[in-house]
Every structure is written in C-alpha cells, then in structure tokens.
Amino acid sequence: MDIGILKESARQERRVAITPNVISKIRKLGYNVLVEQGLGLNANFFDSEYVEAGAVISDTSNIWSCDVILKINKPHEDEVDKLSKNQTLISFFSPSTHPDLLKKCAKDNINVLSMDSVPRISRAQKMDALSSMANIAGSRAVIEAAYTFGRFFGGQITAAGKIPPAKVLIIGAGVAGLSAIGTASSLGAIVRAFDTRPEVKEQVESLGGQFLTVSLDEDGSSTDGYAKVMSKEFIDAEMSLFKEQCKDVDIIITTALIPGKEAPKLITKEMIDLMKPGSVIVDLASQQGGNCELCNRDEITEYNGVKIIGYTDLPSRLPSQSSELYANNLYHILDELTPDNDGVININMEDDVIRGMTVIKNGEITYPPPKIKVSATPKTQEKKIEKLKPVIEKKGSFLPGFIAIFLLFLVGVFAPESFMNHFTVFVLSCFIGYMVIWNVTASLHTPLMSVTNAVSSIIIIGALTQISSVNTLSLILSGFAVFIASINIFGGFAVTKRILGMFKK
Amino acid sequence: MNLEIFNMEVVRALYIVSAVLFILTLGGLSNPETSRRGNQYGISAMLIAVTATILGPQVSGNYSIMIILILLGGSLGLLLSKRVKMTEMPELVAILHSLVGLAAVLVGIVNFINPIIEYVGIEKTIHSIEIYLGIFIGMVTFSGSIVAFGKLSGKISGNPLILPAKHYLNLIMLIAIIYYGYQFVSVETINHAINPLTMMLLISFVFGIHLVASIGGADMPVVVSMLNSYSGWAASVTGFMLSNDLLIVVGALVGSSGAILSYIMCRAMNRSFISVIAGGFGTESSVVSVKTEDQGEVQAIDIDEFKSMIAASKKIAIIPGYGMAVAQAQFVVNQMIQILKDKNIETIFVIHPVAGRMPGHMNVLLAEAKIPYDIVYEMDEVNDDFESIGLSIVIGANDIVNPSALEDPNSPIAGMPVIECWRGTHTVVLKRGMSTGYAGVENPLFFKGNTKMLFGDAKESLSKVL
C-alpha cells in the first residue's frame, strides 16, 4: 500500500507528520511512502533526506490518491472532499468537539483513526501523540515564560547584588505540567505545583517541584487517566490557595484540561490584580477557552503589567522535535496496524487501542468507542498494596532457648570431664565464628568460601597424627588423607589469593 | 628417625597461636583492603599448625612419606588454582569440599581401626559416637559435593531430581543410619563394628547424593554454602574424636561460617532452609496461579536505540545475573563502563545476594574483569535510590528483578527481596528470548511501560554498543 504525507495546511503549522528517520522503518513494514515536495522544510528536514530514507517525492494529486494519508491537524473541509473511496486517514481529529466534521468524513468506505483518541493504557503509551505534544508544550511554555519574564529564573549572588530565584506555580501535573516542572526547576526556579489528583505528588517531587495541597480531602482521579470535575467546596479551597500563591509567584503556567469540556477558569481577574508587575502567565488551555480569565487565544495580553501568553501552537514552535516524536507515534500505530509486515492495513476492531482510535470505519461512525478498563487506576491501587514481607522473621520465642539449656544439662549429667572441656571450646568457637562471619562483606562471600575451604583442611592434622602408625592400612588411608588435604590447603589458599588479588578499587 | 622437637605443651601453645590466626583470617574478610592480609594469616596459621604437629610428640615416623605426600598434593592444588577459570569457581569450591569430606572419612576410619588411646565405659561410647558421626558427616559432604560439582559444571542436569516419596526416602535413610549407629556403638569388638560401619558408609553416600540431586539450579548458592558448613562440622567432630582442640575450634569456625552463609542466601530468596533442602522451586507449588491476564506487549529495541538511551542517561545501574557469567560478558561490560566514564556517565553495579551459582559469584566475576569494587553495590544499598537512576541495564538476570515477588502474593517467589529497577526511569533487559527464569515465573518487569527488551546474546549486544 502507498502512504502519502502532505504539508500541513493549518496556519502557522511548522510540524510535519513524518520525518526521514521513520521512513525507513515504515518501509520495513511493507509500505511505499510518497511525500510532497518541501514537506519538512519548516521543521528542518530536507527533501534529500526523505529521498535518501526511501521516500518518493510526488505531486499533491498523486498523494491524495494514496491508500493511507498521514496528517497532524484534523482535515480542513476541502481536504475532506479530497478524501476518496477506501482511504484511511490518521491524524488528530477531536471527534467529541467536532461532530460535524466527523459526519462529513463518514462516506465512501473511508476509515479515520484519530490520534487524540488513543486510549490511555500503558500498552498504548508509545502511540500517544497527545502526551508527546503535551511534553513539548509544557517545556516550551516555560521557555516562552522565561523569554517574556524580565529576570533570571535561577538565583545568583553576584558582586552587583543578590538575585532571588523566580517562583513558578504550575497548575495541573499531567504530562505537560510535569514537563514544565522539570524544565523550570532545571532553569533554577523554585517550582510549586498543584493538582487535584494526590497520587501525582511523588512525580512532582521527583522532578524537583513542591506539591501544594488544599486541606480538603477529595480525589480528582478518574478511570480514564485524566482529572475529573471537582466539587464546589474543593474548588473554593483551591481558588483561595491560588489567590495566596498569586501574591508570591512570578510565573504561573496553567495546564488544567478536562477532556471534551471547556477549560476551568482558575485564574480570575482579581487574582491577576494581586500579581506583581512583570509576572507572566502561560495558559496552555487557551485552545479550550483558557484557564485564565483574561487569556486571549494565540496572543500575549498585557494587564496591569502582567503578561498572559495564550499560544496554542507551542509544539509547533519546536518543529523538529515535535515532528520527530509525532512521527514515532505514527510509526508505532502503523506497526500495530500491520501485524504481518505486508504493507496492508488491518484495522482490527478487537484490539482495544485500534478500536479506541478508529472513529470512522468503512464510512461509518464508530465513535465513541465502548469504555475499556484503563490500567492507570488499578496501577495506582497496586502501589498502595504494602510490600509483601519476607516470611523469615525472628520469632521471639523462648522455647528453643529452654530446649538448648535442657539439652546442655543432659550432656552435663552424662558426659565425662574430657568431653565437657572440648565441648566448651566447641560452643565458644561457634559463637566466635558467628560474630566474625557476620562482619564479612557480601562481595567477599566467594573468597570466604574458598578460604574456609582451605582452613577446613586443618583436618590434615588428624591425618598426620595417625600417619606414624605401623599398621599398613592405617598408613595408606591416612597417607591418602594427607595427600588430598594438601591439595585443598594449597589449592584453597592459592585460589583465594588469586581472587582477592582481583578486588581492586 | 624421630624429629620430636616440641613437647605436647609447646604444640598446644602453637595451636593457640594458630587458632587465633585462623580467627583473624576470617575477620580480615570484612573488607577487601584487609582481606589479602587475612589470607596471609590463614597460610601462616596452617603452616604453624602443620609444623607443630609434625615436630610434636604425636608424629613419630614416616616423615619422608609425609613430606612427599604434602608436596605432591600441594603441587596438584596449586596447579588447580592456577588453571581454574573464574566462572568455574563454584565447581572448584564444590570439588574441594568433597576432598575435606573424604579426608574426614579416612581419618575417622583410621582412628576406628587403629585407636591411639583405648577408652572404656562412657568415654568409649562417646568416642564411638564421635567416630560414627564424623564419618557420616564426612561422607555426606563428600558425595553431596561431588553431585554439586557435577551440577555446577553441567556434567549432570541442573534440574532437581524428584523421586517419588523423596522425603520418606530421606527419613528412612536417616533412621537406618541411626539404627546402625546404635549397633556400632553397642558392639564390643572392632570386628563386629565393621558391618554397621560399612552399611552406614553406603547409606550416607547415597544420602549425600540424593540430598543435593533433589535441589534445583537456582538454589545452588545455598547448597554450596551448606556443604561448606558440613566440611567444617566434619573437621570439628574429628577434633572431638582425636581430642584435638585446634580441629574443634577451626571446624566450628568454618561450620558456623557456612551456616551463616546458607542463612543469608535463604533470606535473600525468602525461603526457609528446610524448604531449600526439601526440594527445588516449582515442586512445592507446581500449580502456580500465574495470572493469565493480558500483560500487554514487550517493547523490543535495537542497538541504536539502546545506544541513544545510554547516551541520554546520567546514571546507569547494571544488574548482572547468571546469564552474564554464561555469556562471559563481564569483560565487555568493563570496556563499556570505561567508555561511559569518559563520557561522564556514572555507572554502578547492583548485585543481588543470590545472583549466580555461589555466594558472591557476581562480585568475583566483576573483580576478574577489573571492575573497581567501590562501584559495586549490594541490593539494599541501592533499592531506595532507584528514582535517581536514569537507566538500569539487566544482563542475564530474571527472577532477581521480578516485581511479582513484591506485588503478587500468589507468586512462587512472593516475598523474596528483589532489585526494584522498575522504579528508575528506564530499564533495558538484555535477554536471549522470552523464557522464564529458574523459578519458572513470568516476569511482569518485561511488560512495564518503562522497560525495553534488547534480544540477543548479551556479549554480542554489548560489544556492538562500544
């Protein structure tokens, strides 16, 4: 089958669906790849690289007739018209917010796989372009903020005076939020983060952020891996927390999105009034109305000295990186769709991931998919299971002690004095051995065994004391014992020396 | 000719010196720095003990035979120690244990047929018990070690031998040994004692074989340290038999050392000593409730992706297992960490106590490849810090990195402490295929989102990374 990739038609889009790196991998799946001239120029990928990787440069009409079309943005209306019979389109689609587009595409046996409908299960992570893009957006949001912010992020003490570190508040610790936390803290800022889902605390802290909580106890986790809408009390508590923070922080990055709904308004006008002039807000939710009341889509709005950034094209501002990741996501999807590596797409509706993505199959709308169990929630529960304890535990029973004392008493009653002398030596030596061996480091357990092996050939003394016997059989037997014990002594010590010689710092 | 230079009191005094030096030998092993001196102590201790014995009143003739035998045996021992490869260490240790066992048997028999002192009454009974016990332990050590040697060197199958009613078989053999022991002790003359002694020799020979044969490959570290312990007890009992305190002391030291090692190994597998001795993995719970739930798919990567993952990491943990020893990959690993060092990537090694076939096996292999021991850590030292590790490379290990030990109470290895590498950012598992480990348990680690599989021979894969 032929796969075709065209330049993105959306305004200001610099990304490209497929990069040269991925083309050879796609060809290994059995496909031919046709690309438009100058496809990746905006993302710094040249035609020559595509050709070298095995793609064919072709004209647009040819590409529109390919069996599979790969895109990033959802198709424009005229593009939908160009879709022809039996074609398969893979791109972002947002079927929930664009039902009309969905209806329009449902024709002519066309298949549409929506990149934003990949279910959030761990197996599908490699195909989840939303996560890839969110990662980039989060990181870029910090960079945009740093660019707009009139100060350093990291603190310094210079001859000219002390520079305090910037304080960054990140709302929503999803993929984008976490990425922002990582980037901001590596720039040296003090990072705080808030999320309605308490289980992300660990992840926030692992990236160097401080996790803020409200005193109310409500869990915002849901079964689809995204946050859910919270109760009124919780929102009130949350808002007063933000209000407090606004007085203190320099940068706010909001990433709170609830799928299929308008973004919650988290930063109100009166909160912005409290912020210091020169502060920056980056609103990653501006595509869905914004988390910040004063945010304007695709613009920088200035209010009372506070700059509010509402860019929606953050991934596109890192075109090479986002193209690379998107292309990899696409490759993994094609890999799933081509189980036999024969270059033929097989939309297997039994497969949870493919089923979830497929919004139109053979010209019929198959959205929304039936709910599947998402692994994210069971996983968090699993974490809560306490680690299984080892079964070997010291039991605080006195019984063995009493038995031992009783047995010793019996030995004392019956045994002669000579035996008791030896027995004393024996028991004390066992204890010395016990004390000494616990100090041996685990890395030296092998030399310990080889040296104790040599040491245990002290039995040679037993053989030596009997070798002077006049009895021939005794002489032969003890002679042989001397012989093999000597093997052991010399061999054991020599090999120990050899091993220990290797232990070098 | 009689070279009796020392009287018994001097010999005893020298024995004390020797015993103290032996204790210092074991004490020296607490640290690689002092361990070499420890070994020197051991050599001196042995030299003093043997010289004192030869020049003391207990030895009165046959000096030339003695010296020739010692030199012959010694050269053979030295030759062995030079020839042995580090991967063959477990086999060597096992075969040397068998020699101690055999020596104990021989000394016991000689003492039986040619007693130095005639005992009477309760002393005679005790002496007979000592002889009998010494020969028994010696024989079990001997035959058990030979089987262990065979298993470790691959001459016999590493799978546990499962005879029907094997526990009863062991019990019957033990009862028979006690029965013949009673006969041995109660008869009046030596001639009458020969029969029960011969029977016991035969039974304990079979007993030793069966004991080790029924233990599986993954439990070998326990077996080897257990035999180590037995060889010590054999020496100790011989000391009782000969009224020789030095033998008692040193035997007890070795015996308790082996016992502690066995305990450490058992604890590292979360199994009781009894259950290890009683049989291998998968025998006690052969109907394992392995979850058939869809584990998802493994993500295979190729060398180039592996390379870029390495290059992108700041701190790498390498987790070696027996597979590294089999593939002889330790030298390539060393080359790799040298390169990583130049690139300023920190590399550490994490060793599970039962990785390999003998206690400390991995450490020896890494030391052989000249990997500095201060970057080699024990499991417990690293387990809490995996969050700071960007990439864990698992080389030929399986059960020791199996999360089901912690998460699945029904798993056969539930409760066994494991290296929790999945808590790090990424894990790459170098593996030949998707086979299970010795415990026969599926490893959910391979299906985790942050785990990638690099299939193929570990040595080959790593040398391509260089």
Walk me through the structure:
The complex is a heterodimer of chains A (505) and B (466). Chain A is 43% helix and 13% strand. Residues 375-387 and 389-393 of chain A have low confidence and may be disordered. In chain A, helix 2 links the parallel strand 2 and strand 3. Chain A has 18 helices and 17 strands. Chain A has helices at 20-28, 47-52, 60-64, 77-82, 99-105, 129-148, 175-186, 201-206, 232-248, 269-274, 319-337, 352-357, 376-384, 399-414, 417-438, 445-456, 460-467, 472-502; strands at residues 2-5, 32-36, 56-58, 68-70, 88-91, 111-114, 156-158, 161-163, 167-171, 190-194, 210-212, 251-254, 280-283, 300-303, 306-309, 358-361, 364-365. Chain A has an eight-stranded mixed β-sheet, with helices on both faces. In chain A, strands 11-10-9-12-13-15-14 form a seven-stranded mixed β-sheet, with helices on both faces. By secondary structure, chain B is α/β, with parallel strands linked by helices. In chain B, strands 1-7-6-5-2-3-4 form a seven-stranded parallel β-sheet. In chain B, strand 5 (391-395), helix 16 and strand 6 (426-431) form a beta-alpha-beta unit. The chains are: A alpha/beta (505), B alpha/beta (466). At the A-B interface, helix 15, helix 16, helix 17 and helix 18 of A face helix 1, helix 2, helix 3, helix 4 and helix 5 of B.
Major β-sheet strand ordering of chain B: 1-7-6-5-2-3-4
Q: Calculate the terminal CA-CA distance of chain A, rounded to whole Å.
A: 59 Å
Structural class of chain A: alpha/beta
**Quantity of strands of chain A, as a count:** 17
Q: How much of the sequence of chain A is in beta strands?
A: 5-15%
Q: Assembly state here?
A: heterodimer
The structural class of chain B is alpha/beta
Q: What sequence of helices (H) and strands (E) makes up the elements of chain B?
A: HHHHHHHHHHEHEHHEHEHEHEEH
Poorly predicted sequence stretches spanning 5 or more consecutive residues of chain A: 375-387, 389-393
Main β-sheet of chain B, in a few words?
7 strands, parallel
How many helices of chain A in DSSP terms?
18
Give the overall pLDDT of chain A as a whole number: 84
Q: Most extensive interface: pair and counts?
A: A-B, 95 and 131 residues
Radius of gyration of chain A, in angstroms, nearest whole number:
36 Å
Percent helix range of chain B: 55-70%
Order of strands, main sheet of chain A, comes to: 3-2-1-4-5-6-16-17
